[in-house]
Design goal:
GO terms for molecular function: lyase activity. Its cofactor is pyridoxal 5'-phosphate. By secondary structure, the protein is of the alpha/beta class. It is about 40% helix and about 15% strand. The protein has a 7-stranded mixed beta sheet with strand order 2-8-7-6-5-3-4, sandwiched between helices. The longest helix is centred in the C-terminal third of the chain and has 20 residues. The chain is globular. Bound molecules: pyridoxal-5'-phosphate. The site of pyridoxal-5'-phosphate has 13 residues, from helix 5.
């Protein structure tokens, strides 16, 4: 597949300054996303914030179309929020749970989500059951099938965890959830923008994602998808007079679409930037992006595997753009700092962000290097040389 790397890098101002391998943290924004936000901030400063939003009303509305196109759903099914966690929370806490109801989740579940399960379990008496993984590391579909009974009210999993390359079989899980009529919530925070995400294929009922990671959008932006015919049944945990209209002194009426999960005040520059990020991702093509991410991640993993003392920590049959590893005799935070001093950005993934998996595999803090399509092969080599030189 032809890939115009020069164009990708030309349109990414940060490429001139850093080797950015922290795309699972926040990717480098492309020029159109940056420009859109700056322009809107300038407009706000020039004519006023409310007036700028009014003037840009059509473009702001079009953001919903862009996101809907990105994940193949309807614009009415999208709520645009501050980050993935807010979107996820608005969906999760809206799900009615009672004593004895079961939530099925995965071993590589994200910390924020698991804390929310614990809180709801404490409040309602619902039970959290963890689906075992296969020896390779992904959710075991056979175990999931066997765990299902009348008490299972929700299957809620993370597609790609924050701590490594694992890709959970989201579509197969969706098939099982659909077969049994169980609600399915997918945390797609690390996958939207990295690979094709098609709601019609995955068949999840709710999905959350963030702007700043593989989608290359602004920080402080995210979205929630909720299936159309489910929206009316879900009352968000928090409402304001935008999510629900105040109709009479004793009555409110919630928005009929997913905007009931939003609230009134917005960072419109970020919202517009998010829409442009979705359009930009679509213009590159998610299949092409995914293939390139896979090729770069393979180069990176193969290179790390050849460095004495480096141990790859990724699990799963299908692995993605995120790689985690440790380097014998080296503190991961120091490695991050040393690399950073050479303008190479990586991050450290601590055990608490994916506690069940970390405990099971006895994981220390891991160095996380996450590629994106705009990274060059030379940058991966540069990173590998820098890591290799730490052990000589
Ligand atoms: C798997 C996963 N889910 C959810 C989140 C939370 O995203 P946000 O910080 O946008 O709320 C993250 C952030 O790192 C993540 O890796």
């Amino acid at each position: 597949m032809l890939f115009d790397l020069d164009q990708a890098r030309r349109e990414t101002p940060g490429c001139k300054h850093v080797t950015h391998l922290n795309n699972a943290g926040a990717a480098l924004m492309p020029q159109p996303v940056l420009h859109t936000q700056i322009s809107h901030l300038e407009l706000e400063a020039t004519i006023g914030g409310y007036e700028a939003a009014e003037r840009e009303q059509d473009r702001i509305e079009a953001v919903y179309d862009s996101i809907a196109q990105l994940i193949n759903c309807h614009r009415d099914e999208i709520a645009i929020v501050e980050n993935a966690t807010v979107g996820w929370d608005m969906a999760f806490y809206a799900i009615p749970l009672a004593e004895g109801d079961r939530i099925l989740t995965a071993e590589a579940e994200y910390g924020a989500n698991f804390v929310a399960y614990l809180q709801q379990a404490k409040r309602t008496g619902a039970v959290i059951d963890v689906i075992p993984s296969t020896p390779d590391g992904e959710i075991c579909l056979e175990s999931l099938k066997q765990m299902i009974d009348d008490r299972v009210k929700l299957i809620s999993i993370t597609h790609v965890p924050t701590n490594g390359g694992l890709v959970n079989p989201a579509t197969e899980v969706g098939r099982i959830a659909r077969e049994h009529g169980i609600l399915y919530l997918l945390d797609a925070c690390q996958t939207v923008g990295q690979m094709p995400i098609n709601i019609a294929e995955i068949q999840c009922d709710m999905l959350s994602a963030t702007g700043r990671k593989f989608l290359r959008g602004p920080r402080g932006s995210g979205f929630l998808y909720v299936r159309r015919d489910l929206i009316a049944d879900l009352e968000p945990p928090m409402l304001d007079h935008y999510a629900a209209k105040w109709m009479a002194p004793d009555r409110y009426e919630m928005q009929s679409n997913a905007r009931r999960f939003e609230n009134w005040e917005n960072n419109y520059a970020a919202k517009l930037g998010l829409g442009v990020a979705a359009d930009y991702a679509l213009s590159w093509g998610l299949d092409r992006t995914w293939q390139r991410c896979l090729a770069l991640a393979t180069q990176l993993r193969d290179g790390l595997a050849a460095i004495p003392g480096a141990s790859l920590r990724d699990i799963g049959q299908q692995q993605c753009a995120i790689t985690t590893f440790t380097l014998a005799g080296h503190d991961p935070f120091q490695v991050k700092q040393i690399l950073n001093s050479q303008d190479i950005n990586v991050s450290v993934s601590g055990p608490n962000s994916t506690l069940l998996d970390a405990q099971k595999r006895d994981l220390p803090p891991l160095i996380r290097a996450s590629v994106h399509y705009y990274n060059s092969e030379e940058e991966i080599d540069r990173f590998l040389r820098a890591v290799g030189s730490l052990n000589t």
